[in-house]
Amino acid sequence: MEYYPKPGGTAGEIPESFHISGTLTQVNTWLKEVFNGDQVPLYELSETTISYLETLMNTCRERDKNMRLLLENMKHFKTEYVGEREHVSGILHQCGISRENLPQSTQLCIQALAETGVALDARTPSLMCLLYGLAVAQKELSKTTEDCNGEERKSKIQEIMSKKAWEKTQLLKNDLVMVNKWDDQQKPHLSKKAEQTEFLRNKVKEYKQQINEFRDCLHQRGWERNLNHQELVKTSEEIKQFKKKMKELNYKLESYLSLPSDRDLVKIKIEEAKMVLNDLEKKIFQNVEKYYV
Fold first, then answer.
1. What digits encode the pLDDT tens for the residues 37-96?
2. Taking a C-beta distance cutoff of 8 angstroms, is the pair 31, 40 a contact?
3. Whole-angstrom Cα distance, residue 191 to residue 184?
């Protein structure tokens, strides 16, 4: 890695592009001017370093140029102000007016006018420059006032929001106190419910175990899954119908069994029954006729 300038005073091997453009020479000359005869510190001899130093050199020279122009402009204004002062002083002297002869109020007015011109950054003490400075100051004042009013409105909005936030905070604190009280009151009930929950959980486990045992027992005895409650109800209704039919058949069977075994006797029994039936019908008709009469 090469450094420039070298401690021995020689420049070492310098890239050809630096020789052609003269950049290195300009940078070295500028550094000597900056350090004003002191030894220039070592720096790396590379394209990047030279580029940075060249940019810094151009920036500093441009700034120095602007400063010289500003100083020349201020010197020019100074010359104009001195000439204007001498001209006005001559006019005042011809009129027999001097600063010592002016009243104190006039001197204060002149001093205030001068301070106003300085504050307004007026180039000349003419009425036009002072009015222009006042207009600019008034515009800045209006803008500042508007900004202040905007900040005041924002401050009021922030104050209202802060007040609402504080009220919400107080409400939340009160709610928190009430919740803590309710929690303290509910702790015994919650403990009791927790114990009941644990008891019920154990019971559920016990019942599940019993259900599994009963299911295994039913499977061992040939229970089928399609034999549910609806099927049992349907079967029960069929059994009731069957029993009803059996009862009717039993009545018929008893009536048949009450008949004699001989056929002639059966016919006699039937005739006797018919006669009894006819007698009953006659009695019914007689009772009906009596009722209507």
1. 788 888 888 888 888 999 999 999 999 999 999 899 888 878 877 777 777 777 767 776
2. yes
3. 11
CB 5 within 8 A of CB 28: yes
Q: Which of 50, 51, 29, 49 is nearest to 40 (CA)?
A: 29
Q: Are the beta carbons of 34 and 28 closer than 8 angstroms? A: no
Of the candidates 49, 64, 56, which has an alpha carbon nearest to the alpha carbon of residue 18? 49
Say if pTM beats, i.e. exceeds, 0.90: no
Task: Give the helix/strand (H/E) hosting 43.
Answer: strand 43-44
117 contacts 129 by C-beta, under 8 angstroms: yes
Q: Which of 115, 147, 141, 117 is nearest to 130 (CA)?
A: 117
Answer left, alpha or beta for residue 178, where phi above 0 means left and psi between -120 and 50 means alpha: alpha
Report whether pLDDT(292) > 50: no
Peptide bond into 5 cis (omega under 30): yes
159 vs 82: CA distance, rounded Å: 56
Nearest to 41 by CA among 28, 50, 54: 28
Per-residue pLDDT reduced to its tens digit, 252-290: 767 666 666 667 776 777 777 778 777 777 776 666 555
Residue 206: CB atoms within 10 A of its CB come to 10
pLDDT tens profile 133-182: 778 878 888 888 888 888 889 989 999 999 999 999 999 999 999 988 88
